[in-house]
Amino acid sequence: MRSQLTPAHAVATLLIVLCATIPYLAPALDEPFYVIVFARIMIWAIAAISLNLIMGFGGMISFGHAVYLGIGGYAVGILGFHDVTSAWIQLPIAIGLCALVALVFGVICLRTRGIYFIMITLALAQMVFFLSVSAERYGSDDGLNILWRSEFGSGLIDLEDGVVMYYTIFAVLLGCLLLQWRMVVSRFGMVLRASQSNDTRVQAIGIPTYRYRLAAFVIAGVMCGLAGFLQANLERFVSPDMMNWHRSGELILMTVLGGTATLFGPLVGAVVFLLLSETLSTITIHWHLVFGPFLILVVLFARGGVMGLLGSRTTRD
Amino acid sequence: MTDGPRDLHLEARGLHKRFGGLQAATDLSMRAQQGEVHAVIGPNGAGKTTLVHMLSGFLRPDSGSIVFGGDDITGLSAPGRVQRGLARSFQITSVFREFTVLENVVLPIQARQGHSFRFWQSAMRDPGLTGPARALLEEVGLGDRAATRAGHLAHGEQRQLEIAIALATNPSFLLLDEPMAGMGPEENRALIDFLGALKKTHGMLLIEHDLDAVFALADRITVLVYGRVIASGRPDEIRRNREVRTAYLGEAHA
Ligand SMILES: Nc1ncnc2c1ncn2[C@@H]1O[C@H](COP(=O)(O)OP(=O)(O)OP(=O)(O)O)[C@@H](O)[C@H]1O
Ligand SMILES: [Mg+2]
After folding, report:
1. How many C-beta neighbours within 10 Å does residue B131 have?
2. I want to staple A206 with a disulfide (CB 3.0 to 4.6 A). Which of A25, A42, A229, B111 is the partner?
3. How confident is the model at residue B6 (pLDDT cuts 50, 70, 90)?
4. pTM metric for this prediction
């Protein structure tokens, strides 16, 4: 049942190759700045993939997904502030906290549907946002500088090395793409996608959908927390802005822009979104006025996003 | 693949259901025997679908109880009832439109094989799922449509798929809510034959407006009007019943 190669495949391949070679390509082109741009893009792509998992394949439109970016980031920031810089402590805490928060939030909001689901995810995320704003000890609005990137020890993965940092992000991105693909085609993914299509019928088949949707919600939260962990390390900085509702909105836009429910849509969306906003903002300070309508046009007229335009029609592309 | 000779009758005992000011079921009792087709007929809005919703666990009755296979299942969830062998189809076609026909049938087969917390292996490349799914599609006459998207099927084929999905859960008892709805006469006859053959292995509650189908298939008929049972009995008894004739058959078979 393989569909034939489409331009969507070509674009996806090209992007992966580009991500893999930028640390060598950018200096050669005398544009070293592109290394950090692509590192950022890949982190956003990881977050967008995690959102796509629940929104694209499960129909759960979370308007608070950036909260896990913040939690993953603050795990690095706050522990670092207290001189705990070992990744072997930071990472499990980041993952555990994201899983716990996603579990609690999921239990609360998965009972609802549609606009209520969107509003409740937003409200819950804003609670954590305000918590971070009110944490004076950790810099409140101003955020927290991170002196030392997470340490894996014994020269295993030295994130202080820019190239290692870059390829760590790249490896996580590949891992998330792979995981997304397997999950979507697996039995778990069948239930998730079917429940988006017709939840009542899935129950009438004998599958209690709630626990599967909750599991997907938690997995997505953890994956996004990983992006937060990487972002904090890359920028050496965390602030409440990481989990502002704007960020959640941008994640949704990226995913829709790239093409929801496609495997490479989130990556493509992150690339287009960040490059476009970067370029437009250097041309005019009123770039939002151009960007906003552009996004609306894409959502209205290209429902499959960029990947849809390029001929990607199924979940397997 | 059906289980041994357990007592798998389905029984409703004194069900009441009210929607605001509307009484959709009033002291509704009935008993559908294993190995029989029990038809429920009645005019539009009589509460037939409401009854199916209650029996399948999608609506909780205000009072009364439901017994299946000797157990009280009134408090059991909808998925829980399917796992016990009580499956249903929907009056309004309720297939997974974005899925292929094969995927539509793989999902219920996957469900009966246990939990779906399996994150890696491709479901559609698992012969343990696609094998039985293809066999079932052949059986219901959709074999050559396996790769088609369900949303692209003709109406009659979607109705066939609707039943195939319910069958794929490997039920011992089927609740069929107007399976013939919107089908042509040809398809209608084929479905009657198909359901007639199913009778040997499955208990069936058949909601149907098409009285030819009802009298061709039913061993027992219950007549529902305004949420009340006004008659219940063998087909010939129902045919003779005066109250039924005036309330229902009269207008349909003038
Ligand atoms: N969820 C609901 N809320 C309010 N009223 C409802 C609801 N479901 C059904 N009803 C009402 O209950 C009555 C019985 O409806 P039901 O769908 O069970 O009838 P039916 O016998 O299946 O009719 P049909 O032959 O048209 O399918 C109708 O008057 C209907 O409008
Ligand atoms: Mg009905």
Report:
1. 11
2. B111
3. low
4. 0.93
